[in-house]
Specification:
The chain is built from 13 helices and five strands. It is mainly alpha-helical and 333 residues long.
């Protein structure tokens, strides 16, 4: 029997942390590097040990329960998703476990899913839909792993959602830029010209800016794109490079320490600008609304909005555009 662990009590057997990285230490005392990310390290640990790890401060899930299936999914599958998606999944999984953790995964019926949607929908219909969407994906992996034979979420009607239809007018876009910092204004222009998501812009490295253009691999979809140089793109990149930066800064947009802006840090700056804009009588909009404006304007100009978005299907692009399209009408007098 091995020695009882005296520190890092939240780690499973045979896992150690050293110099910021997690390692698997087998009986042969050989150290196998797993990852610096704890969630990914646990997933690799599970592959090596052939079992599902669980935190010592949590109750071990019941064999065959939905709680066990959710835990396995969150360790082996969820960490490989985009960072924002993974963070959202963790919150959704916790809400699902409050209801289903001790229920046998095979015993869940479509009527149970419908009841969850109705009950959870009292407080938030959108969150109820997202949580059941995650549960449905968990069940698809449960079938693949041989834990369950069917997916009780299939065929259960979700709550109807109203698509966001906020379109940013040109004068609004310029108005916010005028009261924003130079950094925010440049990032806004980059978002509009490229239709890139905020995360892809903030993680953009200088090495991705080449003679051919800007190379992008979207964090969310994995789509690879080359944004060829245009007058507008040249201008916004030159302005970004002119911002104060450490000599060794590797990112196009970076902090004084040369690191990329975090999602929360940028969100705080963006919210301050939107509060100021609202105080001046403007109507607030989200940063993601800029992407929708870019795609809508691209379509109106006869451009290939789908390629600009990096979507795998035209339907995905239409989802952004349809709710924001409008017609200009000449009044009678």
């Amino acid at each position: 029997m091995g020695r009882r662990r005296t520190n890092n009590l939240d780690l499973p057997p045979h896992m150690q942390i050293k110099h910021g990285a997690y390692y698997f230490v087998g009986r042969d005392k050989k150290w196998i590097r797993l990852s610096e990310d704890k969630a990914l390290a646990l997933a690799k640990w599970a592959e090596l040990e052939g079992e599902i790890p669980f935190p010592p401060n949590e109750e071990k899930p019941i064999k065959g329960s939905l709680g066990e299936l959710i835990m396995r999914y969150m360790i082996e599958i969820a960490p490989h998703k985009a960072k924002s998606t993974y963070q959202g999944n963790k919150l959704e999984a916790e809400n699902l476990k409050k209801v289903f953790s001790k229920v046998q995964a095979r015993a869940v019926l479509p009527t149970h899913i419908a009841k969850y949607l109705d009950t959870r929908g009292i407080t938030s219909q959108v969150r109820a839909n997202r949580e059941i969407a995650l549960l449905s994906h968990i069940y698809t992996y449960g079938m693949r792993w041989g834990v369950v034979n069917s997916n009780p979420c299939i065929g259960v009607a979700k709550h109807k959602e109203k698509g966001r239809d906020r379109y940013i007018m040109d004068n609004e876009f310029e108005g916010v830029k005028n009261i924003a910092s130079e950094l925010i204004a440049i990032v806004m222009d980059m978002a509009y010209i490229t239709a890139l998501r905020k995360g892809d812009i903030l993680s953009l490295k200088l090495e991705q800016v080449t003679d051919e253009g800007i190379w992008i691999k979207q964090n969310k979809t994995g789509a690879k794109q080359l944004y060829e140089w245009s007058i507008g793109l040249h201008d916004v990149v030159d302005r970004a490079k002119a911002l104060k930066r450490p000599i060794r800064g590797l990112y196009l947009f970076c902090t004084r320490q040369g690191k990329p802006y975090s999602d929360s840090g940028f969100k705080a700056m963006w919210n301050r600008v939107q509060v100021k804009w609202a105080e001046q009588g403007g109507s607030r909009f989200t940063f993601h609304d800029i992407r929708a404006k870019a795609l809508t304007d691209a379509k109106n100009l006869g451009m290939d909005a789908q390629s600009l978005a990096g979507h795998s299907s035209a339907a995905m692009t239409e989802h952004y555009i349809k709710q924001r399209e409008f017609k200009r009408v000449i009044p009678l007098k």
